[in-house]
Amino acid sequence: MSVKSDIEIAREATTKPIWEIADTLGMPRDALYPFGPSKAKITFDYLDSLKGKPDGKLILVTAISPTPAGEGKTTTTVGLGDGLNKIGKKAMICLREPSLGPCFGVKGGAAGGGYSQVVPMEDINLHFTGDFHAIGAAHNLLAALIDNHIYWGNELGIDERRVVWRRVMDMNDRALRDTVVSLGGVANGFPRQTGFDITVASEVMAIFCLSTSVADLTRRLGNIVVAYTRDRKPILARDLKAEGPMSVLLKEALMPNMVQTLENNPAFIHGGPFANIAHGCNSVIATQSALKLADYVVTEAGFGADLGAEKFFDIKCRKAGLNPDAVVIVATVRALKMHGGLAKDQLKEENLDALKKGLANLGRHISNVKKFGVPAVVGINSFLFDTPAEHALIKAFCEEQGVEAFINEHWAKGGDGITAMAERVVELADSGTAQFAPLYADDMPIWDKINTVAKSLYGADDVTADKKTRDQIAQLQEQYGNFPVCMAKTQMSFSTDPNLRGAPTGHTVAIREVRLSAGAEFIVVICGEIMTMPGLPRVPAANHIKINDEGLVEGLF
After folding, report:
1. pLDDT for the residue 230
2. Confidence class of residue 108 from pLDDT cuts 50, 70 and 90?
3. Which of 57, 107, 334, 501 is the catalytic position?
4. Nearest CA to 157 among 47, 88, 231?
5. Which domain, by its residues, includes 461?
C-alpha cells in the first residue's frame, strides 16, 4: 500500500479562507492583515484590545533526544490542537516558523506531517510572510552600519579586532563560517576577519521572539553589544543609531502570522530561533495573544526537553511571565530503540531489550520536566512496525515514573487519533497542580547557572572552560549576572558528544566560548562542536526539490 507524502496530503486538504478561521476565535476582519486567502498577520490594534482578557491554559509539547528515526514533536503539537477541538475545547496552536536551512538541508520542513499538518505547507516552509527576510535584513543593516562607521572616521573608537557582530543568511553554508570583509583597497574600508551565522541564530531573531511590543523590540535592539573599544568599552547598537531603522524593518514582521490546520483549526506560526544554538521557542507575542483568544494553547519547544523545554521554561517563561499548565513529552518506539543501541536499519523488528535500554533517555526527560513543577504525559507516535509488546513496555515504564503514556495515531487519523491524550491533558491543565518555577534563580552566578543545567539536567559530572572563557564569564557577571544562560550544544545527546545516546552520566561539558546577547537578555554558552552556521549534508534535500510539469512544488517534506 502506497502512503501519500505530506505535501500530497496537504494539497488535498479543504482549506477555508483565513477570515473564516478568524471568525472561530471571535476576531473581526479588520483585525487581519491578509497575505492572500490562506494566511494573515494580526494587527497590533486588535492585539492591544485583548490585554484585559483572562489567559487560557498553556500546554508545552517537548520530546526525547532526537534521532534519525524521528519523533514527531510538531506533528503531535498540531494533532493535539486538533484533538482538543475534537473533544469540544476552544484550542489553538503556536509554532515556530521553519528555516530555509534545514528545509534544503537534511531535516526538512516544520509544518507537521501526515494528517496533522498546518497549511499552506509550501508557503510556511519557504518564504511565508517574509519574517525571516526582515530579520536578516535588520541584522545585516546593523553590520553595514558598523563597517560604515569605521570607514567614515570611527568616531566611537571601535577596535576593528573586537567587532563581535557577524552577518547572517537563512541558509546552511559552511563556506561562510569564517570570512574576510573589506578587501579590495581603500575605497572598500578596512579589512577584518568576520563570518556568517544562520539567521535563526541571530540575536535579532531572539529579540524578535522575546519582545512584547514594538517599543520593547526597539529598546532591546538598542541594547545589542556590537563591538568593543581598545580599552574594552562596549559599543551598543544605539551608539550607531541603529535601533530605529532596524525596528522599521521589523515592524510588520512582529505581528503574529495566522494559518490553519488540515482540520481548519487556528494556528499562530511566528518566529523561529534554533533550539540548539538559540532558545528554540516561537514568539512571546504569538503565545500571549493565543492565550487571550483560546481556552487551551498548545506550543512546542525545539529538539529534546534538555534543550527546548529547558529554554522555554528558563528563558521564555521567565522573561514573559508565562505559567505552563501541562507538558507532553513525545517519543517513538523507533527512536527509543536507537537510544538503546540499534542502527536505523534494525528498527522494524521487535526488540524489547533495546527498547528497555533506550527508555533511560525518556526517563531522564520525564525526571527533568518534573523539576520545573509542571505535570506531564508521554505521547507515543505510533508506527506501522510497532508491536503491542513494545507499547506495553513503554506504558509500564511510564507508570513507574508516575506519568501516563498514550499511543497516538494523529499522523494517520488527525485529531481523532489523539483524543484520549487530549482528554488527559485537559484534566492536568485544569487540575491546578502545576507549580511552575525556573530551574535557577535570577541572582545565581552565571557559572553556577551553567553547572546547574549541566549537572541537574544533562547528567554531567563536571563543566570545564579555559582561562579566557572563565575570565569572560567573570566580566559578564559584573553587569549581566542576572541574565539566564542559553546553552548551545548538540541536540542528539544529553552530553556534548552527538554519538552518546541514551542517558549518559559521568561526562564533562566543555564550554568553547560564551557570547553576550544583551538585547535578548541572555548569555549564550557554546559547548562542544556546535556550529552557529550549519553546513549542508553530502546529499542535501535541495537535490530533490523542484517545480514539476504541473507547476507544483515537488520534493518538499
Report:
1. 96
2. low
3. 107
4. 231
5. 446-527
